[in-house]
Amino acid sequence: MASVATSAGLESLHALFRPGLEGVPATQSAICAIDGQAGRLTYRGYEVGQLAIHSSFLETAYLLIWGELPKPDQLQEFEQEVQMHRRVSFRIRDMMKSFPSGGHPMDALQASAASLGLFYSRRALDNPEYIVAAVVRLIAKIPTMVAAFQLIRKGQDPIQPRDDLAYSANFLYMLTEREPDPLAARIFDACLILHAEHSLNASTFSARVTASTLTDPYAVVASAVGTLAGPLHGGANEDVLTMLEQIGSEDQVEPWLERAMAEKQKIMGFGHREYKVKDPRAGILQKLAEQLFDKFGHDPLYDRARKLEAVAADRLGPKGIFPNVDFYSGLVYRKLGIPEDLFTPIFAIARTAGWLAHWKEQLGANRIYRPTQIYTGHAERPWLPQGAR
Known about the structure:
mainly alpha
């Protein structure tokens, strides 16, 4: 039996306690680095803006998971393997058809991702071939399941992947039932790169905790999807669009912000625990949105967003509160014709690469997570029979 903590021991624990583990190092990682003061984000040492311009999502996923940019033959082999494993079992599709049409796509994705373990889990975590196969299957099948549920809930059969289309173009094709414009596919691919990894956030921590038990990678990704589904993590870009709609027009931006601040409302898409300047991904997404508007037509919500950013710079900027990745990403997805409740599942498609990178890294130096707690309940109490309670 564990000994009762001493008074000095409890005081020591209280001194170390940080709600939400804020600022407490929980692992060592070589995957991603964030400089919140300078507004820099790097994957394995490569600046994310450079990757968004020059790389592809699958090349970036390879970098995150295996640690180095692939050589041409390595990338070609990886792309071909992913292409070969895009399809999902008819049994999974049949399972998805039994989901309620009004269910949230994130719940459908979590259940579907977990179900992959029934088909492929051997937990051969010491087998390099198993590791590679699991990475390929998850990166290949997660987009297919997101697109499949979108059509199933509309009463339609899912569209099979097209082997002649690249990763992002194929997803948009399965989702919208038409081949996407090359610019739209490229911009969507860049969005996936920007969302692929972001250090030890809540869903990535969830993935590492689950991985530390040595369960299968499908359970790891399913647990991360469940964590991402929470409104304090994923989904803020949906709320940004709702906020911009509520503002009404550009001339209402300033009075709306004054009221919101007076009422201590959260300004959606602003602020980040890591960044004290504008999120570097937000600036890139803003440029991507402008490229879409130039080709496919303007979105008046973008004008409100720019005005809100300008007005908020004077009021929130001195507090270190600036636009984050969610502020402009919803405008990009909206222009691509993606339903708002699919924004977070698309986040999951991208972040699967980061989750798998952390899964693989966790296996390399594993120790099961077992933090302690500070007990705040009753002292020992005597049992009372029902009549004496």
